[in-house]
Write a structure and sequence with these properties.
- It is a single chain.
- The longest helix is centred in the first third of the chain and has 19 residues, at 2-20.
- Helices cover 13% and strands 45% of the residues.
- By secondary structure, the protein is mainly β.
- A hairpin with a 3-residue loop joins strand 12 (197-208) and strand 13.
- It has a single domain, classed as TonB-dependent receptor, beta-barrel domain (Maltoporin, Chain A), CATH 2.40.170.20.
């Protein structure tokens, strides 16, 4: 019912835009915008500058460039247009399947500050359970229909804009039209015949009297799942080797749930979303402008977990209270693949007033509230410890992130200088809401011999009684089902236990000062200083210096040096997660616990510290006629970088892995028997090591005019490396260390050509991904030193993706678009047996790769302006 109401509201609103508003030509406005020089608001506080005269590298992305991309997810749009921005599709990764972590300049999004209308955007509720534990804003909640332009500051700016701005700043500017609007509808699907997507979006501007505006934007997206897998067939279990009856049961269940015969699909999730944004402002007098903007976003997505087959530790025989044998195959005769759903609700409100006093002092006073929640549902699975009493659908709980901030910014012109200063206060709350009891309970069969049938290998009176009724119980047989210990909680994603649930809260305040201006006719410089104080991590003073020297009218030299400070978020401090991993096909419950928890402390965790950074850039800018280019080098040192340690194995087998047994004893001493027996591995976040990230950005553009039309050429290239600057071996295993430095392409590039002639426009784009590597195992020599084995390493070759789009302007206000993304249906290299972990379980392509592995996609789009 909720979904129908939201969809109806969105569609009705868009229909009203298209049907009731008279059409008006926007050709004059578009022409005016086209000839304007690109101006960047971010980069120098209180002093907007053109991109090539900015002291730091800034990309300014226009509305036309945004709409020319055939994605609806803002993450994919950013990746298409900004090479240093990357995001991967993670189909089996808990909440990260729906809120995808991204990176800018090789650093995760929790180190990139996201702004809307120059105001901080709140974080999502999801904390990634591995790697950097990213918790950043969810860009997918921002509809393209609402955006007038995007600015990407590719430079550390923590001293100017606050914590998180280590890699850079992304500022989304909302539309502020007083009249007219736009409407678009798009439909497309992949060459494989799946993944059909429908996107409907629109914007309408209204005047509020003579001195105000209200701009409303909405978007609806319905995206079907894809499948790029093969049938599950591994050395430990092969579906096609089973009986015809078993195969029929397995594939029938998969068809019903996922629309494929593959029992474990790999592909993009099924998603439905509705998004709404508004932006409004009103001029009270010459000294005061009021403004407000906000959003409401809802989405529902579903994906799958790993396939569970009989005898894999989850689907095992147990003895019921009457002594009979029971197996989960009685519920799932063909095994089962859990279905995981995430419903995301996101809303925000920003309000304030700004203006200039008679004294010349400009001010901006604002307050904001942001909230993001993800609520999980798990179905087609069991709580193994409940035996035959288990349900098959669970509500494991929800996560939410809430932020309140008040901010005051001031600007003052003193001759050729701009002085900016301000202060802010922010309160943050991260909440873990417990799931329903069945989703986390350690029930009857979580212990050996729950009914007391046996006594140290002998048969008890209770055991003798069930044998008398025909039971096959044999207490002398250590493999008898009576001794089977079953996993705890909803299998695949156990619910949040109240013991590890609750609120994590902190507040902080900051004060900053900034001065910028022309030192000489050729030299512009700025200096920033910021003091931040956190209730949980203390205080820090950071600074930044930047400048640009105009050697000639065409050539400029620029550079910056700054420091940064990032306190781990409440979510990174408090998040808890238990998920199922399948090394060699056998399920292991891996738990992520807070560093301050009893479990993590028992296994060596230390309290978290704040990350500190040093950022250096040096670049060249060149402009001559219709040609412009920038080349920038950057170097980012991060100390005490937050990262998830490699898994610590837990095993109660005294004769097995000695470290795993030692960890088991430590866990048993700190917790209880059920917890120690039900968890097979533990991870936690730590300030694990220092890193150096360095690279080069090259951006160039050329506009060519001729009697045959206008042509725009753009090229953007990013080269980026990240290396350890301290020894991480106390926290990461050898495989994790290798993949950290080599697991993503070091080179990314985008080249595009847009040609316009009369009523036709054609856009061609090439996206390039360089080589990258993955290693599955390592060896050691006689001295214990690591030997990187070439036989366990796979090098993924470079890839080119070609996009082609044609537009026909039927009138000044109506356009029709046909396009193809990945025209030649290119795929990255398939995973090989060398990296057996990545090749596991029906997987064909490396599922976490930033290189798209869905294949070609074609689409048609209708655009209208009015």
């Amino acid at each position: 019912m909720k979904l129908k109401k939201i969809n109806a509201a969105v569609l009705a609103g868009l229909a009203s835009y298209a049907l009731t508003i008279p059409l008006a030509s926007s050709a004059i406005a578009e022409e005016a915008e086209e000839i304007m020089e690109k101006i960047a608001v971010v980069g120098a506080r209180g002093a907007p500058r053109s991109v090539t005269s900015s002291p730091v590298p800034v990309d300014v992305i226009s509305q036309d460039e945004i709409t020319s991309v055939s994605f609806s997810d803002m993450n994919d749009i950013m990746m298409t247009l900004v090479p240093s921005y990357t995001v991967s599709r993670q189909p089996i990764s808990d909440g990260a399947s729906f809120i995808r972590p991204a990176s800018l300049r090789g650093l995760p999004t929790d180190k990139t500050l996201v702004l809307i209308n120059s105001k901080r955007r709140h974080r999502s509720a999801l904390v990634s359970t591995g790697g950097s534990g990213t918790q950043g804003p969810d860009l997918a909640t921002i509809p393209t229909a609402a955006i007038k332009g995007i600015e990407v500051l590719r430079d550390g700016a923590a001293a100017q804009y606050g914590s998180d701005a280590i890699a850079g700043v992304i500022n989304f500017n909302l539309k502020d039209n007083t009249e007219g609007g736009s409407f678009s509808s798009e439909i497309g699907q992949y060459f494989e015949g799946d993944g059909q997507q429908i996107t409907i979006g629109g914007n309408k501007g209204f005047s509020l009297g003579q001195d105000g505006f209200l701009s409303i934007s909405a978007e609806y997206v319905d995206q079907e799942r894809t499948d790029r897998s093969e049938q599950y067939c591994e050395s430990w279990f092969c579906v096609t080797d089973q009986s015809a009856e078993y195969q029929a049961a397995a594939t029938s269940a998969s068809q019903e749930l996922y629309g494929t015969d593959h029992v474990q699909p790999w592909g993009q999730p099924e998603t439905e979303a509705a998004r709404l944004f508004f932006n409004t402002g009103y001029t009270i007098n010459s000294n005061l402008d009021l403004y407000a903007f906000g959003n409401y976003s809802w989405s529902d997505g579903s994906t799958n977990f790993f396939y569970r087959y009989p005898g894999n530790g989850t689907m095992e025989d147990i003895r019921l209270e009457d002594g009979s044998i029971w197996n989960p195959t009685e519920i799932f005769p063909g095994g089962f693949t859990p279905k995981f759903r995430g419903e995301i609700t996101d809303y925000s409100l920003v309000f304030g007033g700004k203006g200039e006093l008679d004294s010349g002092l400009s001010y901006d006073l604002s307050g904001r509230y942001g909230y993001d929640e993800i609520e999980y549902t798990l179905e087609n699975t069991i709580n193994p410890s409940m035996g035959n009493a288990t349900p098959t659908k669970f509500s494991p709980g929800s996560l939410s992130n809430e932020e309140v901030q008040f901010q005051a910014d001031f600007f003052y012109d003193i001759n050729q200088y701009v002085v900016a200063f301000g202060l802010s206060y922010m309160d943050e709350t991260y909440d873990i809401s417990p799931g329903e009891v069945d989703s986390y309970t350690a029930s009857t069969y979580s212990v050996s011999d729950p009914w007391g049938f046996c006594d140290n290998g002998s048969t008890s009176d209770a055991g003798i009684a069930v044998i008398a009724t025909g039971s096959t119980l044999d207490c002398s047989d250590s493999d008898d089902a009576v001794y089977q210990i079953m996993g705890v909680g909803s299998n695949g994603f156990p619910g949040y236990d109240p013991e590890y649930s609750g609120d994590y809260n902190r507040d902080s305040y900051s004060v900053y000062g900034d001065v910028s201006g022309d030192i000489t006719d050729k030299f512009f410089a700025q200096a920033s200083l910021r003091y931040e104080d956190y209730s949980d991590f203390g205080s820090e003073l950071v600074y930044k210096l930047a400048g640009i020297y105009q050697v000639t009218d065409e050539l400029g030299i620029r550079g910056s040096f700054g420091t940064g400070f990032r306190a781990p978020t409440p979510g990174q401090q408090g998040t808890t997660n238990v998920s199922t991993t399948l090394p060699n096909g056998y399920p292991v419950a891996q738990g992520l616990f807070p560093a301050t928890s009893t479990v993590a402390q028992a296994l060596g965790a230390e309290d978290l510290k704040a990350e500190k950074s040093t950022n250096v850039t040096l670049g060249l800018t060149y402009t001559a006629g219709n040609f412009s280019a920038t080349l920038d080098y950057y170097n980012i040192l991060i100390e005490d970088r937050l990262y998830a340690i490699s898994s610590l194995d837990i095993s109660s087998d005294e004769d097995g892995d000695s470290e795993a047994y030692t960890n088991y004893l430590a866990l048993l001493a700190a917790t209880d028997q059920v917890t120690a027996d039900s968890i097979g591995a533990v991870i936690y976040f730590q300030n694990a090591f220092d890193t150096v990230t360095e690279g080069v950005d090259f951006v160039a553009a050329y506009n060519m005019e001729s009697e045959y039309g206008d042509t725009k050429f753009t090229v953007s290239v990013n080269y980026n490396t990240t290396e350890f600057d301290s020894d991480p071996s106390d926290y990461l295993n050898a495989e994790s260390m290798y993949d950290f430095e080599n697991g993503t392409p070091k080179t990314r590039g985008v080249f595009s050509v847009a040609h316009t002639l009369d009523d036709f426009q054609i856009t061609a784009r090439v996206s390039y991904y360089g080589e990258y590597e993955n290693i599955d195992s390592v060896d050691t020599d006689d001295n214990g030193d690591i030997i990187w084995s070439d036989t366990a390493k796979q090098t993924y070759g470079d890839e080119y993706m070609f996009d082609l789009e044609g537009t026909y302007h039927m009138t000044n206000d109506l356009s029709f678009v046909l396009g193809v993304r990945n025209l030649f249906d290119n795929y990255p290299d398939k995973v090989s047996d060398a990296t057996s972990g990545d090749a596991c379980c029906g997987r064909v392509y490396s599922s976490g790769s930033v290189v798209d592995w869905q294949g070609g996609y074609y689409y048609a789009k209708f655009l209208a302006t009015f």
